[in-house]
Structure formats: structure tokens, C-alpha cells
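Escalation from tier 1.

The customer reports that the assembly of two entities below gives different C-alpha cells on two consecutive runs. Tier 1 could not reproduce it. I'm attaching the input and our single run for tier 2 to review.
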Amino acid sequence: MDFHTAAQYASLLSRDYAEDIFRLLVNYQAISASEVAARLNLHIKTAQDFLESLEQLGILSKEEVLEKKRPYYRYILKKTRLIIDIDLAQVKRELSKNSLTAYIRERENAGARFSVARGDDYITSVTIWTGDGREREERKIKLTTPQGKFLFYLPFPRAEPLTVDEIMQKAGIDPNLAPEIVDMVQLLEKYNVIETVHGK
Amino acid sequence: MSLVRKLKPDRNITGAIYPLSMLPIFGTITLLFGYTTGFFALSIMIALFGLFYLYVYFRTMNAYLLVICAESGFLSLLLALMYVNSPIGNGRFMPSPFDKIEYGLSYFSGLVFFGIVIVFLTLTRKLKWRGREVFELAAEPVEESGDGYTPRPRPVGTVAYTMKDIHNFARFCASHQIALPYITSKNITLVPIKMGEEFSRLLGLSGDYRDATWINFDVSGEVSVHIAHKDYLDYREPLPFDQLCTAFGQVFIDFLELFKKGEGVRVVDRLDDLKIGILS
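Tier 1 run:
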């Protein structure tokens, strides 16, 4: 199951009335949206949307029936066991070859504020200001200790750039922590705090 | 040695403002409450000035500062003696203290003694904060123009020392007024102080010392440097910041090496050889 589908499942299951509707679906052979709404005192649109969403996820099937020439749907539960199974390795960032070999340094006039830990050699947070005038907003990025150590050793603007790998070695960071370092580097690149130096 | 200064000339009178501010306060109190109260207020202000220097003495252990304490105490006492009966309030003001030969002799002998001693100590730089010399020395090997300022600290390397070494070195820097040490269980941070900045820094009016220029020695031998933007802008040229931080760190690492060899006096000589004005 992909993350998006799992999120849809979770979103539906988190509704207040979800358990009650499932109880009806399990106990009734087939049920319409208006019957669900009447039984649970819900708005018909709420019941309709919920059942349609379940049908789209393949949990229900629906069949059209006619009553006094007016068609409507009756919903039938297809399975009585729901399994949400997400492989989180799917969302794990795969490091590209050049993410660790890119030469980086702090961008000149980055305009960021670095808060240094008291009594230790690492940065605890980076504060960035975005926008102008009334749109100006402050964003504080809290760093993990390895990220803070990495940033402490980041070359200054105009200094000789170093690769991500070299900086990690200087800062004594475990290579297994590379994904969180690369994530922070990419975020700070986005905010123009770090620059990649090409042609090294 | 090159006499081309990398720092801008010192035109800061902040340091003089604190003692000089006693005069307008004295004038205002005299105008409002009469000269008896004015002199008494002046006596209190001078005593407070002496107390401040006593605090600076305990902070730095520079014994020469005790001369200022003694002088302040002496002047404060003489002003207070203008009252026949101290303290203020019920005391009657001595109509003309200088009519009393004892008072006049005491006043002039004290003035001459402290005047000569303080001028001597000033000329021989015993009372000078040497922060400006440190900044000038750090900029010496940095030649090319650059910039690239960042408020981040820079790690400048690992140095072999024991915590005892670094404690002694911090005491040495304090007693020669090279830098003010801030000691925690894991770090010793040295904050160089320029003349005129000592009042605000020691009175805690300059904010957190971590925002100032400092060099930090930690328990594991890591040395890092931070240069405040204000101090960076004090250089005439926008120096390459990375090199400046490295040179700044190297200055203190060299000082530490000299100190460990028992040649601390050479550190003071190197700084004094820069011949920076005694009041800047």
C-alpha cells in the first residue's frame, strides 16, 4: 500500500461516525446512503461521501436499484478485514551519488541567524526571514545534534568549499546519519543559506 | 613591523563617558540642592567608581587596578571629610576646607602621588585593555580583500592542552587585560575587550558575551572563534572573514604556546610592540 492510499484509509477511519457506519455495513447485506443517514442521524451528504470514498478504495461495492423510477445506490461490504500496511522504506530518501560529493559552503549575506549551543560546539537552530514588508516571516529551523555539528563545520562564505562527506568527517558524524544531514542541506539550499559550488 | 593599521582609528569616547558623567551629575545636584549635597554626591559617585574597579580587580586579578581603587577611596574620603560631621543630612559643610593646612597638605600630597602613579601605569600600559592589539595582530597576516562575514563561530582546530593549562592561560589573559575569561564546566571562553568597552562589558550592559567576539577552548581541545559584526566592521577593509577567524584563533593558540613555555611576557611584548595608543 502506498502512503497516499494509507492516508485516505486513515482519514476515513478517523471520522467520528466511521465505526457506526462500519457496524451497519457489517450487519446489513446492503444499505443505502439515506438509510445510513437516517439510522445514524447524519446529513445524507455526509453519509453519501463516506460511502463513495469507501467504494473508491475498494472496500465496498455498489449496485444501482430503482425505486419508483428513481435510481439510487445500495452499498455492500466487500471485505471484513482492513489492513493498512505501509513500507516506510518507500519514503526513505535515497541518497544520490553527488549528494555527498557536492561542494558546499555558506552563502554570502545569507541573512540567517545561527544560534550556538551553550557550552558545546554545535548550532541549535537557524532562523531565516522570508518575504518583504508585511509579508516578512520568521522561520526557525530546529536542528538535531548531528545537523548542528555539521553546520558548525560548514565552510564560511568565500572560504574553500568542502564536500558534504568531508564536513561530516570533520564534525565526526556517523555516516549512517547522512540522510538527515542531506535533508538539512537541501532545506537550507532552498532558503539560500547554503550554496553548492560547481566546477570544483 | 608595519605601521599600517588595519583597524580604523579609535574615535570612541564611550569609555570616558562613564567617569566624565560624574561632572554633569555633580553640577545638576549642586544646582538643585546646593554644593554641600553636590560634593557629597560626587563623593559617593567616586566611591562607586572605586568599587567598580575593585570588582574589575577581582575579575582580572590585575593588581595595578588597586591603585585606581585606592585613589577613588582617597578622593571620596577627602570629599566626605568636607563635612564636619558625616554622614549627609545633619552634617554642616566645612566653610573653606582649604583654609585647614592639614586638609590642603593631605589633598595635594595624595593628588601628586596618585597622579604620578596613574600616569606611570597608563604610559606603561599596565591599565590598558589590549583587545584592540589582539584584533590588529589577528589581521596582520590577512592581506587580500574579501568579506564573507557570517555570525557563525568557526572551528579553528584542535590543540593539545590540559584544563589546568587553559585555566592558567585564562588567568594570565585576564591579569594582563588581554581578554576577559568566562568559565563553565566544559569551556573557557576568552572575550577580548577594547579600551572603552570595559565598563559596558563588566557592568553587563553589552548583552550576552556569546554575541561578542570570543575564542573558546573546550575540554576536548577544540578551539573555535566567533567575531562579532561590530568588531569586523571596525576594520578599514572588508577582510576575508574565513582567514581572519583562522588568524584570530592562531593568535591565541600562539599565545597559549608561549605561555606554556613560560614566556608569557613575550605575549605582552608582542601586543605592546604594536604601539597602539594608550587610550584606544
